[in-house]
Amino acid sequence: MALWGGRFTQAADTRFKQFNDSLRFDYRLAEQDIVGSIAWSKSLRSVGVLTAAEQKQLELALNELKLSVMEDPEQILKSDAEDIHSWVEQQLIDRVGDLGKKLHTGRSRNDQVATDLKLWCRQQGQQLLLALDKLQDQLVTVASENQTTVLPGYTHLQRAQPVTFAHWCLAYVEMFERDYSRLSDAMNRFDTCPLGSGALAGTAYPIDREALAHSLGFQRATRNSLDSVSDRDHVMELMSVASVSMLHLSRMAEDLIFYNSGESNFIELADTVTSGSSLMPQKKNPDALELIRGKTGRVYGAMASMMMTVKALPLAYNKDMQEDKEGLFDALDTWFDCLEMATLCFEGITINAQRTLEAAMQGYSNATELADYLVAKGIPFREAHHIVGVAVVTAIGKSCALEELSLDEMKAFSEVIEDDVYPILTIESCLEKRCALGGVASDQVSYAISEAEKRLESR
Ligand code: ARG
């Protein structure tokens, strides 16, 4: 039975009912709706709408319902209730009779759905914090195992200067750390309880809303009833945090897809996260990574769709807002799955250190070292840059590396070059020279690893 039949003389068209009903997706709020209802029943008792015995009876029935829902959430989908709020109320009435009809006193589905969704966002946010944490943890593990694994560093996808695989991992640890902080920050901001705001103007019962907020684990009650029922900032904030994090995941996936290509051959992904081709027997495709990259678009789509849905809504609640859930659920599910999948990819990754070293030694990524060497010998940098450019062209002509040029050949570029140039041109030297904070030198990398470990342990 609908919650609002009295005013109507005609039944809803079945097509409208299908169009209007939200149970098929908001059934995911069942637990939150029940928990919110228990808290509300206590508020009703505190203002004398329910007796202590009535409240106890409702609480008992709601707790039973919660257990049953947790065991079998799919049962909800068999109902033709309009939404999760109607479903919970109907179940309650089935269990305790007319007493169940008292629960909605002073409450509206508008403050109810806002509360349910915030509770859900908080729970999901906590799962996501954990998933971000796990991925960082895995990256730090791979980093500590690969402190001496040399990797070509790129700009413009051209080999630029050598780095280490550890340094590359730690770059993504930084990105996921910012995502973690953004998510915590957003969660902190929406830690406010809308329940007791009524339909829009506030509830007509003298309920202690701060106490109600605390009983549901919120920091405080929301301050304005109109805002309370129409605010969906938390939905948009979560989706924007998800979007930025998906961007990080997608860039990481793209790097790894490239490293995994036959042309690079830097890494091999485990069989557990790859798939084959139906036609080409030799293929092992990086599907997990490609899907991470691909799913990024759909998270952005959900965010854009939500912004457009809300942008022209007058205060306060409008049914348009029911459109908030599917996109949010999908975006956060997708983000969670991608974090988990990325973690899984690193668990089984094999790094071909011989190949990454070879690649780092090709491509003249020690050219900057030669220029710095000339500068140290008194040549102005701009001139040194030009000299080394000529040296690189010469080496390319001879199909050799800079360090393979003889001293005589070197001297043809500049008289100041001596035998001491060769140690400068080694990969070790390239790496170790970058010893300022945040650089790729081994001390800096091991310092970064221990700082990241400390950070992860302290949460
Ligand atoms: N299913 C609705 C939603 O998701 C619940 C709130 C309904 N409120 C109303 N006044 N019709 O937004």
From TrEMBL:
<comment type="similarity">
    <text>In the N-terminal section; belongs to the lyase 1 family. Argininosuccinate lyase subfamily.</text>
</comment>
<keyword id="KW-0055">Arginine biosynthesis</keyword>
<keyword id="KW-0808">Transferase</keyword>
<keyword id="KW-0012">Acyltransferase</keyword>
<protein>
    <recommendedName>
        <fullName>Argininosuccinate lyase</fullName>
        <ecNumber>4.3.2.1</ecNumber>
    </recommendedName>
</protein>
<keyword id="KW-0028">Amino-acid biosynthesis</keyword>
<keyword id="KW-0511">Multifunctional enzyme</keyword>
<dbReference type="GO" id="GO:0004056">
    <property type="term" value="F:argininosuccinate lyase activity"/>
</dbReference>
<keyword id="KW-0963">Cytoplasm</keyword>
<dbReference type="GO" id="GO:0042450">
    <property type="term" value="P:L-arginine biosynthetic process via ornithine"/>
</dbReference>
<comment type="similarity">
    <text>Belongs to the lyase 1 family. Argininosuccinate lyase subfamily.</text>
</comment>
<dbReference type="GO" id="GO:0005829">
    <property type="term" value="C:cytosol"/>
</dbReference>
<comment type="pathway">
    <text>Amino-acid biosynthesis; L-arginine biosynthesis; L-arginine from L-ornithine and carbamoyl phosphate: step 3/3.</text>
</comment>
<keyword id="KW-0456">Lyase</keyword>
<dbReference type="GO" id="GO:0016747">
    <property type="term" value="F:acyltransferase activity, transferring groups other than amino-acyl groups"/>
</dbReference>
